[in-house]
Design a protein that fits this description.
The protein has 148 residues and is of the alpha+beta class. The protein has two domains: 1-33, no CATH class; 43-130, no CATH class. It has helices spanning 10-15, 19-33, 80-96, 120-127; strands at 43-52, 58-61, 67-68, 99-109, 115-117. A five-stranded antiparallel β-sheet has the order 3-2-1-4-5, with helices on one face. A hairpin with a 5-residue loop joins strand 1 and strand 2 (58-61). The termini are far apart.
């Protein structure tokens, strides 16, 4: 049986003719899709995300067909049909120039009702830019100097 990160190149992995190789292909196909398991009690599903043209911030499509920076406000779909309907609405907004790079991403609705993206990348996008004035302080305005 093959496992991820076993040191073989993808080309070698695809040419091996054994049952283990087929299982390895399935494992890699699932990992490329970003499939993850939700925590116990959480409901898996999808939300639609994109980039706001004016600010470049990551935004999420809401149930009222508006765009919000907060993933907790996103429209949550649990079936592929719902996901495709939301994605079609978002692609319409992309054609009109409101957003860019529209995609449906895996998410979960927690037992507390809060919607969270599953992938760390999307969670970081929801926090906004990591380089911004409120997260830094100019040199010499505080803190102790650590070097001798």
């Amino acid at each position: 049986m093959c496992r991820r990160g076993d040191g073989r190149y993808r080309g070698e992995r695809d040419t091996i003719a054994s049952n283990g190789a087929r299982a390895c292909k399935r494992l890699n196909r699932k990992s490329r899709r970003g499939a993850k398991m939700s925590a116990k009690g959480n409901e898996p599903g999808w939300i639609v995300t994109g980039h706001d043209f004016s600010s470049g911030a990551g935004v999420f499509l809401t149930a009222t067909h508006e765009w919000s920076r907060d993933p907790a406000c996103a429209a949550f779909s649990t079936t592929p049909d719902e996901r495709e309907a939301l994605l079609a609405l978002a692609l319409g907004d992309q054609e009109r120039g409101r957003v860019e790079l529209v995609a449906a991403i895996a998410a979960e609705r927690g037992t507390d009702g809060v919607i969270r993206p599953l992938r760390l990348r999307e969670r970081l996008r929801a926090l906004g830019p990591s380089v911004r004035p409120d997260l830094w302080e100019p040199a010499g305005t505080g803190g102790e100097h650590v070097s001798p």
